[in-house]
Amino acid sequence: LRAPPAPRLAAQLAEVGRLCYSRGWAFGTSGNFSAVVSREPLRLVITSSGVDKGLLTPAQIVEIDERGRVLAGSGKPSAEASLHIAIAQTGGAGAVLHTHSIWSTILSEDAKDGGGLAIEGYEMLKGLNGVATHEHREWLPIIENTQDWVAAAPRVAGMLREFPATHGFLIRRHGLYTWGATLSEAQRQVEILEFLLEAMGRKRGTTWQP
Amino acid sequence: LRAPPAPRLAAQLAEVGRLCYSRGWAFGTSGNFSAVVSREPLRLVITSSGVDKGLLTPAQIVEIDERGRVLAGSGKPSAEASLHIAIAQTGGAGAVLHTHSIWSTILSEDAKDGGGLAIEGYEMLKGLNGVATHEHREWLPIIENTQDWVAAAPRVAGMLREFPATHGFLIRRHGLYTWGATLSEAQRQVEILEFLLEAMGRKRGTTWQP
Amino acid sequence: LRAPPAPRLAAQLAEVGRLCYSRGWAFGTSGNFSAVVSREPLRLVITSSGVDKGLLTPAQIVEIDERGRVLAGSGKPSAEASLHIAIAQTGGAGAVLHTHSIWSTILSEDAKDGGGLAIEGYEMLKGLNGVATHEHREWLPIIENTQDWVAAAPRVAGMLREFPATHGFLIRRHGLYTWGATLSEAQRQVEILEFLLEAMGRKRGTTWQP
Amino acid sequence: LRAPPAPRLAAQLAEVGRLCYSRGWAFGTSGNFSAVVSREPLRLVITSSGVDKGLLTPAQIVEIDERGRVLAGSGKPSAEASLHIAIAQTGGAGAVLHTHSIWSTILSEDAKDGGGLAIEGYEMLKGLNGVATHEHREWLPIIENTQDWVAAAPRVAGMLREFPATHGFLIRRHGLYTWGATLSEAQRQVEILEFLLEAMGRKRGTTWQP
Is residue A14 within 8 Å of residue A5, measured between CB atoms? Predict the structure, then answer.
């Protein structure tokens, strides 16, 4: 029997997961969430695969190392653990949140691979880390979906190095990844990006009569 | 006075019913829900007809046999009990959930009888039982509505044999049926299918500017 | 100091009012709700004018007679009390609910005076009192808005006699009226009609690709 | 250590802030809220900059003077404090609420500077202070966004003097400001205006078939 993972971080992570579920961003066991426990060596707590996020408890969170091996807790880490590790390593994130919302699913169908979604000129952009004015153009890269994230993780790491200023990315017909230095910063950013995606999506459904 | 139905299953069923109501999928006494108590002989617990799902209690759930006769509890089983029985018999389901959501109502108007709705390429499809990749095409058959489900049950059973891989079906201008080996699997699937129906519906209302 | 109104009915009415508010159907002190205490002579409990329905308590409900005079409780009855009285007298309703939802506001802009909105072929119609099949055509008359409901009440009574089968009506750019023999029947009908109005409204916003 | 700000007003303000957050009008630390403590000299309680409105407590509210200097409590007042002060001074408001909703964001893109949004003929308009009939035309001015509200405050004060009858205004791609003599009046108005903005926005997304 392994020791339980970092209890305070796991409890915070479970709370953020239940919040995302309550907003309809993590229905049907979708979505996964992580937070960095230590940097050297890299250790993360991450949600187990296939658990109901509406009832998420710290017991459904495991601690993993930089190769995705379980160090503490019981359960299988999310199949997308390699993405969380890549984001923690490349971008220096302290927490990574991945949601499956209606609007990120729809808007991620927009662009071809190598493409993305631009969001520009909105006050809400100031909620993103380091953005001090609405006169900001956020570029959310859109990457293709896959079922082999171990193989795809270097591609994501490369994209993060190519776009060091980005605060998130979309996976086509799949959802949104965002991150922050802390869990509360990441939570603020997921609210900001989901808000902006919803605004962009609803705006498209509106007949303009300026 | 009959004995009460299987108490633990009835309590779980009542909880799932209240959850569906809280999401707007079972307004105004609509929707009905069942779970298999035993296979041989077939016994199901099912919601009584005409009860408010927002206040659903185990006392509003009855136990029926394979011909829809009440064995335990008081109340009239749902008028669609014969559909629940057919699904339990043909597809081997352990729990059957039927919701009346806005999006299933709208999207079920799409196709002619014998038609259906295809949902393809979305990560959320992996929440369906046995689906391991987003490269999956889910075909939801759409059947005509009727007020005589005893007469229509064999037609539904035939459709389930024709499409053994389907995870649900729509009744035109009426709603969604889905099922699972257990109540929690069925609950996960209703969240997945309602999410995908909402995404398909909202996508249609959006002006694309790719 | 007047005696408080019928306490059990007032408490039920307050609960229904808070439910309507929680669904966004009675924002900003809008909406009003009543229930019949006695028929001969006619006595109703009705929400006071200008109260926040999210915090509605029995103390904000007054009892009135057939001419709208306050018999019990303190507060001014809703300015639309004459409509509630007309509906209770003409249609024999035991409870009357009036909501201001987004969809009833939008859809009531549709038709000219003397016009209305037809809803046909939906299973949810069976939630309306006395409707036994989805093969039903519900005609919701749309009447013009006014600020003098005492003067307009006879016109509404006439419309109810002209359409004795209707389960509700819309006031243009204003909202929905529905009623039932009891408060719970009226609550079921407001859920059914608001659901159908939302479905009709969202369907219009969807690009069909059948 | 400074003394805490007016405790009862701060507690009410925190409650209104949490309500706005729960409706999705103040995601990701957005939105700010104030109430007048005294008129001569002018003193306001106002939310601190950058706090999560879903967890808003009186400890995150500061008291400021007419030049935005902190008199009580700890924390930095909102960057838009000068706007709140201008509205309290020019319009005589006792409470000012500023929300970042989806619909105010979208609809504020409509008009050029000096322009605005007209809302006319809706019963819900009667929820605005001093409006006694639906035959009312509300003109919501739309002003350009900026990051220097100290410099922009005189422009806003001028606009309020130009349109003394207005109950709110929009900042482009940013959100809504409204106010009232008391916090509960301001809360009623934010519900009314957000309802009307949502109705206008959804109406645009609907294909009319009158």
Answer: no
Do D28 and A192 lie within an 8 Å CB cutoff? yes
Q: Per-residue pLDDT tens for B27-67?
A: 988 999 999 999 999 999 999 998 999 999 999 999 999 99
CA C194 to chain centroid, in Å, comes to 11
**Distant-in-sequence, close-in-space partners of D177: CB < 8 Å, separation ≥ 6:** D83, D87, D96, D97, D98, D168, D169, D170, D171
Strands C137-143 and C168-171: parallel
Which residues of A sit within 8 Å Cβ distance of D?
121-124, 127, 132-134, 184, 188-189, 191-192, 194-195, 198-199, 202-203, 205-210
List the single residue in D100, D110, D111 with the smallest CB-CB distance to A123: D100
How close B73 comes to chain A (CA, Å)?
30
Task: With beta carbons under 8 A apart, name residues in chain C contacting B175.
Answer: 123
| Element housing C175 (H / E) | strand C175-180
| Residues with Cβ within 8 Å of residue D59, at least 6 apart in sequence | D4, D73, D74
C-alpha C56/C-alpha C18 separation (Å) is 6
Amino acid at A107: L
Contacts of B188 in chain A (CB under 8 A): 28-29, 52
pLDDT for the residue numbered D7? 87
Residue C175's alpha-carbon distances to B135, B138, C125, D124, in angstroms, are 45, 40, 19, 9
What pLDDT score was predicted for residue B5?
77
Burial state string for C104-131 with b = 16 or more CB within 10 A and e = fewer than 16: bbbbbbbbeeeebbebebbbbbbbbeeb
Q: Give the closest of B188, B191, B210 to A111, CB-based.
A: B210
C-beta of residue B21 within 8 angstroms of C-beta of residue B100? no
* DSSP H or E stretch at residue A189: helix A183-204
From B127's Cα to the closest Cα of chain A, the distance in A is 6
> Do C190 and D195 contact (CB within 8 A), yes or no?
no
> CB–CB of B210 and A145 under 8 A?
no
N- to C-terminal Cα separation, chain D:
64
Q: At residue C1, does pLDDT exceed 70?
A: no
Angle at C74 between CA C36 and CA C9, to 5 degrees: 30
Which tokens is B69 given?
Answer: 């006769």
Candidates A174, A5, A23; CA nearest to A77 is A5
Kindly report the backbone phi and psi dihedral angles of residue D103, in degrees, each rounded to the nearest multiple of 5, phi listed first: -75, -35
Omega of the bond prior to A41 within 30 degrees of 0, cis?
Answer: yes
CB proximity list for C146: less than 8 A, separation 6 or greater: C152
Q: Do B202 and A204 touch (CB under 8 A)?
A: no
Alpha carbon D112 to its chain centroid, in Å, reads 21
- Report ipTM (2 d.p.): 0.93
pTM, two decimal places: 0.94
Inter-residue contact C78 to C61 (CB < 8 Å): no
Examine the pLDDT at D207 and tell me if it is beyond 80.
no
